[in-house]
Write a structure and sequence with these properties.
The protein has 528 residues and is of the alpha/beta class. The chain is built from 15 helices and 23 strands. The protein has four domains: 225 residues, Rossmann fold, CATH 3.40.50.300; 84 residues, Penicillin-binding protein 1b fold (2-Layer Sandwich); 62 residues; 89 residues, Rossmann fold (3-Layer(aba) Sandwich). The longest helix has 24 residues. The chain starts with 23 loop residues before the first helix and ends with a strand.
Amino acid sequence: MISYFCNKKVSFKLQSDFKPTGDQPTAIAELVEALHKGKTHQTLLGVTGSGKTFTIANVIQQIQKPTLILSHNKTLAAQLYGEFKNFFPENLVEYYVSYYDYYQPEAYLPVTNTYIEKDLSINQDIEKLRLSATSALLSGRSDVIVVSSVSCIYGIGNPEEFSKTALLVSKGLVIDRNVFLRKLVDGLYSRNEIDFQRGNFRVKGDTIDVFPAYGDTGLRIEFWGDEIERIAIIDPLTGKVMETQNQVTIFPANLFITAKDNMWPAIRQIQDDLVAQIAVFKEQGKHIEAKRIEERVEYDLEMIKELGHCSGIENYSRYFDGRESGTRPFCLIDYFPDDFLMVIDESHVTIPQIRAMYGGDRSRKQNLVEHGFRLPAAMDNRPLMFDEFEEIINTMIFVSATPADYELEKCEGVIVEQIIRPTGLIDPIIDVRPSLNQIDDLVAEIFKRVDINERVLVTTLTKRMAEELQKYFDKLSIKSAYIHSDVDTLERIKILENLRKGTIDVLVGVNLLREGLDLPEVVVGSNS
């Protein structure tokens, strides 16, 4: 509900029962001082458990800038999102990760002449959170924190078009009701009188209910003639009015928005490039590829003309954005103002991940283009190259226990250290035991920890092993769950919450220790 409002000037307000201790006060002071002096790159070197997240929260509180926090995986991003949400309950803290629970990209394997069609399963709840993040950034408020995975460097719609399609609604505004409805449709909202879900609107006489694609509450717009008489926040299930507002902004229901003025020029350009590509294939004697690209693109164009979209429309994004060949796509970072702070968590892992994205995407697309499955413009629907990523970041803080050469080079060898933990705890002793009777030994240790209300992580070598071990624990009445790459993003968050609450005592998984999880109730065991 908060991101509907048009409050321009809201300050970050950190709320916590704790005060900085240990090395935290010095680290906060050094980071903030360097930011005020205009230093663009800094490294916070902090051991595990030293409270680096709390340090960054205090830095954000003091510099008062919109912040993008980049994480290397969805699970850690979700945990950081929860922590910052608790630190800044009155501000806009958003979560932006890939919304695919399952994603098989389009690909072609020339060796076996195998075409793999794109297959995906979109998580609607995560799509809502992504739209909430972009809407918050364009709402005019400066108190925005977005916690994101590296999916933030992938192409999305033009922020200018997204912002232009947003509908500013205020009490007393004079607008024809039908014009208002057309503007909703332009924002890719669908009329549905029966099933009122996100991205839908319904009409009853002079009353229009809208369920924003990025929210959990609905909007009720009441007209008196051509004048908006009342704006109310409603419960989308019951229709009950929760509160009234004088002004709200309705942002589009999709990240890929194309203005009608750009549609037909884009279609003409696609047709011209299709003719040119067919000629190239025929000149090379590739008549099958020429026929293939002709059929595929003409079908897509028919869908775009009739419905306004087609499967794989992102491969034509360059035409609709009006970009030149070879130029980078728009991404989440373009939705931030020029003066923002980027924090790269676990930078020694995240930076290499950003570097690798472009190459993997390009090798797959190249095969599709060369064999007539896509126009060359599909190559411009891609993640950012690393140098492009560096160009659009002004101020960056690397956070890591083991910073790599890149971070040290950027910071000219000067780092901010955070070694002493606020709790005073030292690193735990590692106990390596023989593999003989390891399961019985593990079970005995689990029962010891459960008796003193602690939790246990058990790491395994394979997903199958994790699942089998969890079944074995069930037979012994040990409350347990497993987690690995096949578990949905939001389900992972629930499992970790259940572990901390004590609903389950044992979590079994693969590479759990690389997740960077903050689970103070947990001791660790390994079955490897």
